Amino acid sequence: MTDEWATADLCDAHPERVCVVTTPMLDLGGTPRFRGEVRTLRVFEDYRPVLSELTQQGRGCVLVVDGGGSIERAVLGEHLLGHAASNGWAGVVVFGAVRDTRITRAIPTGLRALATISQRGESGHATERMIPVKVGGVSASPGDWLWADDDGIVISDGPLQAD
Predict the structure, then answer these.
(1) pLDDT the model gives residue 136
(2) What integer pLDDT is reported at residue 52 of this predicted model?
(3) Is residue 120 part of a domain?
(4) Residue 28 domain-assigned?
(5) Which of 31, 38, 99, 145 fits as disulfide partner to 74, beta carbons 3.0 to 4.6 Å?
(6) Residue 48 domain-assigned (yes or no)
């Protein structure tokens, strides 16, 4: 698989295999262009399950966090994204809020999120991992692939090549 790709080209070449995330997401990481196999997590206003996941080896995967769209409390910040970078994660996409973005923009890992907020989350709500989740109305399942660049985010049922 070549490293020459763009989400627009993937949409043109594989319209039947990609879903486009149409919800606007902020680019808040140090790597604006990233891709990888999807791992998933569903949380509600709690950073601790995200920390637990990002301390594991990422092996070039992208963690997709379904935070239920909550922008009341951050589920990721500089320390967690630092763990992602150290452990080989290609990126993290949060359908929810993050914080410490002045610093996350310097960490060499992709980060997209719905919003920013200063307050850290600690809800204690139940967490689910490695299940199908939703990001802006688009489903993402473990084993799917996520591609993010300046034009947006697409999710496919596996690796793709731009034609």
Answers:
(1) 86
(2) 96
(3) yes
(4) yes
(5) 99
(6) yes
DSSP 66-93: E-TT--SSBS--HHHHHHHHHTT--EEE
pLDDT at 101: 98
Written as one letter, the residue type at 123 is: S
The identity of residue 64, as a single letter, is V
Q: Which of 108, 131, 127, 114 is nearest to 22 (CA)?
A: 114
Candidates 110, 119, 140; CA nearest to 35 is 110
Q: Give the chain's domain count.
A: 1
Average pLDDT per consecutive 10 residues, the chain (163 residues; last block may be shorter): 84 97 97 98 96 97 97 98 98 98 98 98 89 94 98 96 71
Instruction: Indicate which CATH number applies to the domain containing 110.
Output: 3.50.30.40
* Domain ranges, residue 27: 23-142
Torsion sign over Cα 156, 141, 54, 30 = positive
In a domain, 106, yes or no: yes
CA gap 134, 118 in Å, rounded: 24
